[in-house]
Amino acid sequence: MLRNFLTVGSWTMLSRVLGLIRDQLLAAFLGAGPVQDAYLVSLRLPNMFRRLFGEGAFNAAFVPMFTAKYETEGRTAALRFAGQALSTLVAWLVILTVLCELFMPFIIPVLATGLQGERFRIALELTQITFPYMIMICAAALVSGALNGLGKFGAASAAYLSFNVIGITAIFLGAYVWHNVALTSAWAVTISGVVQLGALYWAAHRVGVAPHFVRPSLSKDIRDLMRRMGPGLVGSGVTQLNLTVDMNISTLLPVGTPSILYFADRINQLPLGVLGAAAGTTLLPLLTRHVANKDRASLHASMNRALDYSLLLTLPATIGLIALAPSIMAGLFSYGHFTVADAMKSAQSLRAYALGLPAFVLIKVFSPGFFAEGDTSTPVRIGFFTLALNLVLNLALYKPLAHVGPPLASTIAAIVNVAILAVLLRRRDVFKPDPRLKSRVTRIVGAAIMMGLWVAAAQKFVAPDLPYWHGVWRLSMLGALIVFGGVVYAVSLDALKVVKLRDAAAALQTRIARRRTR
Question: What does the UniProt entry say about where the protein is found (predicted)?
Fold first, then answer.
């Protein structure tokens, strides 16, 4: 599991780094203003449906069914089921896309109530361009699910790099050729969906699991898929409604606030996307096999190790983001039209998001515990409660705390969410923390706090005004502080006997030697 975890995490990390470069370019060319706000709204709608139908309830229901069919009925039956699912999904999404394109002028005000005048006009134009991306990326997610179900994680994770590669290219073309960065970036979104679907289908074809289009029909398998998917769809919808609430509230704040929150969230999503995606993607098929084999000991062990690995990497990221937030936002984004003042506001939002980072990651770890047993209804009830909580907190906090209110509301809601998930899984005998986990988590927390104190002290005495330095020197010093923090954390882990550096170095050398002999 650790190898698959690291494979998905490595590809996702590369994708996130490219995504960071893309965001830096967007910040430099568009700043935190009306055009940036409109462009970000145009991404919200297709991404919402992508997470609903591509990465949310559909995949949570599809992957266990596909894996089980492959294991019990063979490749032919599994591919027949995948082809039926793909055809039904695409047919439904095409209908949905046509309807949304026609009624987009009425949908945008629901998504972003505060957009008026020019911001509304730009958002409408860009959203009508980006929305078809949903069809391609949801189909790509299904093909990716088939690959993941067979333990083929590398190709599926690598394909998603194209979104950022094409996006970066489009920004330069928009800036220096067509002189409209927002428009070219919107077209890049849809084009990247076509490329991702093509790359994944080619990868699936190579290993013999490429599903074929057939006439859509409500077969027994598809009805079973929809039955399993239904409650989860509502649950995923609750999560997306939470994000929509945050977006809507941000448009009611001063112009540029959606942009300020977006860039803070993107930094928070860097560790969240890498660790959360790696944990959720690799854990679901594994837990499904344990449940099918009625192997509770292995189920408990897999959950504990996934939580262990996740916190080992998440907690230092949390402490580091809180300690270095102003320097991070200024160092990465304070160029061109994105000012230092914008970066300082975004840093405040980042700290509020980072407080909830462990909770956001652990939701990705705990959710497969329900999905593996075919239970997608329990997260729905939890989701409705946290949706209501997030809405109440947003309304209570957005005026007094401005740009800090929405991220803080999301953080509190996530902490409540993960606490409820953990309690329920414990009662169901799916999650059973062992003494090793409890001991290691305590020591990991200690190492992360030690790292944060050393990093904060180093910045205070070496570069107290780092956010206001010249760009190159600021970025260099930020990199040095991050490396310093990593060294302190590694030494602390070694001193607390969480990870022995000598053993880790030996394992790395062995892996490198194996690769060289292939």
Answer: Cell inner membrane; Cell membrane
CB atoms within 10 A of CB 80: 17
Name which of 332, 327, 326 is nearest 349 in CA terms: 326
Q: Which of 345, 357, 377 is nearest to 418 (CA)?
A: 357
Q: 339 vs 39, 168, 321, 421, 430, CA distance in Å?
A: 19, 21, 20, 41, 49
Provide the domain count of the chain.
1
Buried b / exposed e over 343-374, threshold 16 CB at 10 Å, is: bbbbbbbbbbbbbbbbbbbbbbbbbbbbbbbb
- Res. 4: pLDDT tops 60: no
- Check residue 190 and give its pLDDT: 94
Asked if 433 and 304 count as a contact pair (C-beta separation under 8 A), the reply is: yes
Any domain includes 499: no
- Residue with token string 């840093």: 347
Phi, psi of 466 (to 5 degrees): -55, -40
Residue 220 lies in a domain: yes
User: Which domain does 85 fall in, by range?
Assistant: 2-433
What token pair was written down for 474? Answer: 């600021």
The tokens for 84 are 């039926």
Token pair for residue 81? 């089921």
Kindly state the tokens that stand for 383.
Answer: 């989701």
Q: Write down the mean pLDDT value for the chain.
A: 84
- The pair of structure tokens assigned to 317 is 């990221």
Amino acid at 260: I
Could you tell me where the beta strands, DSSP code E, fall in 19-167? none
438-497 tens-digit pLDDT: 999 999 999 999 999 999 999 988 888 888 888 788 889 999 999 999 999 999 999 998
- Compute the distance between CA of residue 377 and CA of residue 227 in angstroms, rounded to an integer: 11
Task: Report the distance separating Cα 405 and Cα 389, nearest Å.
Answer: 13
Whether residue 250 contacts residue 37, with contact meaning beta carbons closer than 8 Å, is answered with no
Cα 26 to Cα 500: distance, rounded to the nearest angstrom: 41
Is residue 487, in this structure, part of any structural domain at all?
no
Rounded to the nearest angstrom, the gap between the alpha carbon of residue 431 and the centroid of all alpha carbons in its chain is: 23
- Sequential DSSP letters for 184-235: HHHHHHHHHHHHHHHHHHHHHHHTT-----------HHHHHHHHHHHHHHHH
CB atoms within 10 A of CB 376: 24
Tell me the longest C-alpha to C-alpha distance in the chain.
68
Distance of alpha carbon 221 from the chain centroid: 29
Structure tokens belonging to residue 402: 């401005």
Cα→Cα distances 135→19, 88, 110, 170, 350, Å:
21, 12, 22, 21, 32
Give the pLDDT mean for 418-428.
92
E strand or H helix that includes residue 313: helix 296-333
Quote the distance between the C-alpha of residue 67 and its chain's center: 23
The predicted model gives 403-407 an average pLDDT of 94
Q: Is residue 438 part of a domain?
A: no
